[in-house]
Write a structure and sequence with these properties.
Shape of chain B: flat
Strand order of the largest sheet of chain A: 7-8-9-4-10-11
Oligomer: heterodimer
Structural class of chain B: mainly alpha
CATH superfamily of chain A: P-loop containing nucleotide triphosphate hydrolases
Largest sheet of chain A: 6 strands, mixed
Strand order of the largest sheet of chain B: 1-2
Number of strands of chain A: 11
CATH architecture of chain A: 3-Layer(aba) Sandwich
Number of helices of chain A: 10
Structural class of chain A: alpha/beta
Radius of gyration of chain A: 18 Å
Shape of chain A: globular
Chain lengths: 263, 321
């Protein structure tokens, strides 16, 4: 897919170059060439099984944790291939954080959840201030400020997910990957997360995988549409400004998908 | 008029219909179900009745023991000499030896068992795990008498060559305790591994996505989340160590001694019971009755430990919900 006709911007944070991802012998994602602009929200949409999450997890080397997964091609982070042999995946993940489909706070206090990542990174400043600042950024402070030392598991699903976002941004990553972050949440909690994403996009590059097209249309600046070919290998069909993808898709498959004729 | 007739007829039809349905829904007698249920109840009751029988027997004989004029419960629990011939029944030397061997056993089995569990659950590849787990399970299958002679003929000479044969007696609590630790290791490691495995993968992913290393993830997220399961494994290991007989009977010594020196011989509660019940003792002597009192004490200790372990394991289940 050719992305040259996008608004001119040479400073992509992430570029993939002929990215193929395999699980064992199964080609899960094929020939993805994607460019992610900085401090914008980029949505990846497409039908189930088209490799959206697999691509997302390739951006911070989370696929390393799956023994059968391997990849070909390059994922460039500011021009550096994060799959080069001299790259430490731990360092990659410190700069590229992630929020998962199901809220997964640690079974610790709210405070400890936010402080955890910072602490392992050797933070020596004022932790109380950092926790407050982070929770404010995540629009959670007012709801939890009196219960900071209570278990994070006592929060509602939407609050837990905002806590997970707080935990991710506490370590000041450059990119926050979100893998269907609202799929376990009700519509009100979903809207809160979307508002939060919008605020966070001033500082962070956000890449969100979603199967909710309204969400992509509402909340993202750019949209990549994925589908799968006859061998069930996922591939990118179209990438562009969200407004363009949803109003004037260039590709027939994209149009079928967003108009609900497929998927 | 006609309308009313119709109504009556339809009500009648409905009644017939309802009758049919209630016929179909009627309770059936299922003989095989009842039979199976009864059988299962009987089988289940056997184990409960056995336990009750044991408690009764222990209690009865202990009652006889404490009923003797030369024995008092306070003296039994507080004095430090066990010499039935001289009429001295202070159980503390036996308890002390049991605690010492169990302590050494846990000193071996907790760190080794937990490390093995962390390795198997967090680090090992599928192939390494499929090789190592059966080997650990072989350890659990070795008869304890073999461990006993392993302690006596390998561990004790080893200790003597390290610390000198003047300091280390041939029978000593350290050797027995260390080998007992090796025996308990598979129990501790497999229960701890179950606890670690029960920690949802999403927590590991969360830790990794924050830039945690494998070690940080294991030590700071997975182990704390599995802590109650690990504690339960540990307590079960302790109760196994307290109750273990063969190793201590062979390698720890056969004479009650109140000592904190791990290189000296001392007899544990279980070792004493094994020795006395193996010798020819007249029925209804204080010696004979005493083993039941000690047995009751052991029973109570392991019961309490198992109850604590169950409590903790139950709490463990609630952690992620």
């Amino acid at each position: 897919m050719n992305t040259d006709n996008l608004p001119h911007n040479n400073n992509y944070v992430i570029e993939t170059d002929r990215l193929n991802i395999y699980y064992g012998n199964f080609l899960a994602v094929k020939d993805v060439n994607l460019k992610i602009p900085p401090r914008k929200i980029t949505a990846i949409i497409g039908p189930s099984g088209c490799g959206k999450s697999t691509v997302l997890r390739a951006f911070n080397r989370m696929n390393d944790l799956i023994p059968s997964a391997r990849q070909e091609g390059r994922v460039l982070f500011h021009g550096k291939n994060i799959y080069d042999p001299d790259v430490d995946p731990v360092q990659v993940r410190r700069m590229i954080g992630m929020v998962f489909q199901k809220p997964n706070p640690f079974p610790k206090s709210i405070y400890e959840n936010v402080a955890w990542g910072v602490r392992i990174n050797g933070f020596s400043g004022n932790m109380d201030d950092l926790v407050e600042e982070t929770l404010r950024q995540a629009a959670l402070w007012d709801e939890v400020k009196d219960n900071l030392h209570k278990s994070a598991l006592a929060l509602s699903g939407g609050q837990q997910q905002r806590l997970c976002i707080a935990r991710a941004i506490a370590v000041k990553p450059e990119i926050v990957l979100m893998d269907e972050p609202c799929s376990a949440l009700d519509p009100i909690a979903t809207l809160k997360i979307e508002d939060l994403m919008r605020e966070l996009s001033a500082r962070y590059t956000i890449i969100i995988v979603t199967h909710n097209m309204q969400q992509a249309a509402r909340a993202s600046d750019f949209t990549a549409f994925f589908t799968m070919d006859e061998d069930r290998a996922g591939m990118m069909v179209e990438f562009g400004l969200t407004s363009q993808i949803f109003t004037r898709p260039k590709n027939k498959q994209t149009e079928d998908y967003i108009t609900g004729r497929f998927g | 008029m006609e309308n009313q007739l119709l109504k009556i007829r339809s009500t009648k039809d409905k009644l017939i219909e309802t009758n049919e349905i209630s016929q179909q829904l009627r309770k059936r007698l299922r003989l095989s179900e009842t039979l199976i249920q009864t059988l299962l109840l009987i089988f289940g009751a056997v184990s409960i009745l056995t336990t009750l029988g044991i408690v009764y027997e222990l209690g009865k004989e202990s009652w006889l023991f404490f009923g003797r004029e030369e024995v008092s419960l306070v003296e039994f629990l507080t004095t430090t000499t066990w010499q039935p011939v001289a009429g001295k029944f202070g159980v503390l030397p036996l308890i002390n030896a049991t605690l010492m061997t169990s302590f050494f056993a846990m000193l071996v089995s907790l760190p080794l068992g937990l490390s093995a569990a962390i390795y198997l659950s967090e680090y090992a590849s599928a192939r390494a795990r499929s090789l190592l787990k059966p080997i650990l399970e072989i350890l659990a299958g070795i008869p304890t008498v073999v461990y006993g002679y392993f302690a006596l003929t390998f561990m004790t000479p080893l200790l003597r060559s390290i610390f000198g044969s003047d300091t280390v007696q041939i029978y000593n609590t350290l050797s027995a305790g260390l080998v007992m630790g090796i025996m308990i290791l598979p129990l501790v490691s497999s229960m701890s591994e179950d606890a670690l495995n029960a920690v949802p993968n999403s927590l590991r992913e969360a830790a990794y996505s924050l830039g945690a290393t494998r070690l940080e993830t294991a030590i700071k997220v997975v182990v704390p989340a599995a802590l109650s399961g690990i504690v339960a494994a540990f307590i079960l290991g302790v109760s196994r160590a307290v109750g273990e007989t063969m190793i201590v009977a062979i390698a720890a010594g056969s004479g009650p001694a109140f000592t904190l020196n791990p290189f000296r011989a001392a007899e544990t509660m279980t070792g004493y019971i094994a020795r006395i019940s193996g010798g020819d003792l007249a029925y209804d002597t204080p010696d004979y009755n005493s083993i039941f009192a000690i047995g009751l004490l052991l029973f109570l200790v392991t019961l309490v430990l198992n109850m604590i372990s169950r409590r903790i394991a139950a709490r463990f289940r609630e952690v992620y919900e």
